[in-house]
Amino acid sequence: METRAARARERPPYSPAMAAPPLLLVLLLAVSSCVAATGATVVGEDYVRPPPERYHRKALLGLFPWGKKKTSASNPQQVHISLAGEKRMRITWITDDDSIPSVVDYGTEKGTYLMTSQGESTSYSYILYSSGKIHHVVIGPLEDNTIYYYRCGGQGPEYQFKTPPSQFPLSLAVVGDLGQTSWTTSTLNHIKQCKHDMLLVPGDLSYADYMQHLWDSFGTLVEPLASARPWMVTEGNHEKENIPFLKSGFQSYNARWKMPYEESGSTSNLYYSFEVAGAHIIMLGSYTDYDESSDQYAWLKADLARVDRKRTPWLIVLLHAPWYNSNWAHQGEGDDMMASMEPLLYAAHVDMVIAGHVHAYERADRVYNGRLDPCGAVHITIGDGGNREGLAHRYHNPKPAWSVFREASFGHGELKILNSTHAHWTWHRNEDEEAVRTDDVWINSLASSGCIQEGGHELRKILMITFGILGFVMCPLSNTVHHISAF
């Protein structure tokens, strides 16, 4: 019998031309695109980023604060939101006044709060630093694609956010390795110019690196965006902050950026999943155990077994350390995790794997086990949000066959999923007052290809081993773990 691998080898290598969408989709995207490439622009490996003094300070500093705002001890600070289950949102903020209740008032009209939710609070100490009171309140159920107005702690300013849609189109902004530099501010300003439903961050947020006050300044920096659209994040190496015998890792990150891990059946805030519109998105932890005997590995198998590609045709994974990287920086650091988990993702027909860590941009073709494969995932490295460590300029040459586009610059990505079959990925260099779009590709979902049908038996075999019984029916699992589905 002809094998799946043999059939895959007979196909031509995947290329953007194979993913060319219908003309109508192209026209729709052209109308809705936030920014477009302008003029004759040098892109890719030939691009050399000019020194910062050439840039407009208005573009760098215009919309986001640098210093901590002077505010009342009772007023909310560092407000950000994230998905927290089916049609629910988690509101997180900090107060210096411990007496402020963990309560959120909200409604669909300005100044009118017909609904109230109570939540929980936490705090932590780190050497000589003591955090404020960190509030986490889950609100809902909420309507899809709707603007809500809310107030934290029963007083203070009014904020607003928009819930994601329940169906396509869906617009996702993506940025990694942010930090708190002028380049960070430029990147955030460019993201603000684009209409997006959610922002995804594959690790390395504040670059606090043990200096806890930098977590506070980062929270203030991102509040204008993070309080208005959900931010879904996973950890990077700069979130570790562990001190042997004194402090365990990720204490600050876990206290401040609580993600919906419990709602997705995970036992750790370092890995979880969620669903939005027609996409199932998995956030993996590069800095917690991931081998075949680990809790994360077992959870990933169980999570993949629950995915319904008819309901969520797009399957996307984010993690910090890239598996496919032709840059000299951090070479090979994701190899062990890839060896353990790539077969799982391949069997589940993951469409995209997005990573950070390397401070440059790179897009790979569909690839598996180091070779081009039309049933593999598109791998993207986007660790170039604007951190203080600078850019990773050196690439290996000649570049691998799977590497399509690479450039050492700061920027962000946008993934516009138009329907169950077509998505449009762009990467925007943050060079000017308007982002310059330098990479652009259409992606076909694997759910619309023959890969899932051909690999169905392989997927069932690998995932059923989770329960130790090859003949086990996976459906009952959904009765024991309530999976998160957003809007």
TrEMBL record:
InterPro entries found in the cross-reference section: Calcineurin-like_PHP (IPR004843), Metallo-depent_PP-like (IPR029052), MPP_PAP (IPR041792), PAPs-like (IPR039331), PAPs_C (IPR025733), PAPs_N (IPR015914), Purple_acid_Pase-like_N (IPR008963)
Q: Which CDD domains match?
A: MPP_PAPs (cd00839)
Q: Which residues form the Purple acid phosphatase N-terminal domain?
A: 76-163
Q: Which UniProt keywords apply?
A: Glycoprotein, Hydrolase, Signal
* Domain called Purple acid phosphatase C-terminal: residue spans: 377-434
Pfam families per the UniProt record, alphabetical: Metallophos, Metallophos_C, Pur_ac_phosph_N
Q: Does the keyword Glycoprotein apply?
A: yes
Which reactions fall under this protein's catalytic activity? Answer: a phosphate monoester + H2O = an alcohol + phosphate
Domain Calcineurin-like phosphoesterase intervals: 172-361
Q: State any single GO MF term.
A: acid phosphatase activity
Instruction: Kindly indicate where the leader peptide sits in this chain.
Output: 1-36
Top-rank taxon, per record? Eukaryota
Q: Does the keyword Endoplasmic reticulum apply?
A: no
The family classification in the record reads: Belongs to the metallophosphoesterase superfamily. Purple acid phosphatase family.
Q: What is this protein called?
A: Purple acid phosphatase
Q: Which organism is it from?
A: Paspalum notatum var. saurae
